[in-house]
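Standup notes, protein team

Yesterday: finished cleaning the Lepilemur randrianasoloi set.
Today: Cytochrome c oxidase subunit 2 structure.
Blockers: none.

Input for Cytochrome c oxidase subunit 2:
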Amino acid sequence: MAHPVQLGFQDAASPIMEELLYFHDHTLMIVFLISSLVLYIISLMLSTKLTHTSTVDAQEVETVWTILPAVILILIALPSLRILYMMDEITTPSLTLKTMGHQWYWSYEYTDYENLCFDSYMIPLSDLKPGDLRLLEVDNRVALPTEMSIRMLVSSEDVLHSWTVPSLGVKTDAIPGRLNQITLMTSRPGIYYGQCSEICGANHSFMPIVLELVSLKYFEEWLLNML
């Protein structure tokens, strides 16, 4: 999860988030190089009064500064499209989890099992234990197995919500009357926090999401305790 004065992204816990971090670094380097070149040219123009007549009216220069931005855009667009297709790719899921947004809590249903559903509310400040995180802890965490393809079905029963877990690279709108689908796969166990990312009313800030990613063995034990 995020820590104080953090400037970058959270550590990636899924293959999609790793790709997004690589793409961010790739794009940031291109922006840095362009900004440095523009700053150098501006400082050069301000610090000298000399004018090169053959450069002011040169077809070669105009050709270069027309083609070069197009090449740069292609270098940005191709990795971006690749990640978009990876995020939309739906494989055969090992588990399906249905998520419903409410004002102001989440409800979860494991559709592969009978009567396995629960609501997840934020724990009030007065009930927090030492070491708990303010505005992020919930009474019922979502348990999921690691290294398995999981299908998330996201919808809402009242207003717009957004189910978001930054370290997994997941952000899906919960829209009343519409069922959005995403594929979730994690690469390592841990506890991951998220929040509703769509302004949904007075208590929008009090809709945390907590995922507890465990190995398949411990997930099966959790299922036996819940059923």
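Follow-up from PR in the comments: The domain at 13-86 is CATH 1.10.287.90 (Helix Hairpins).
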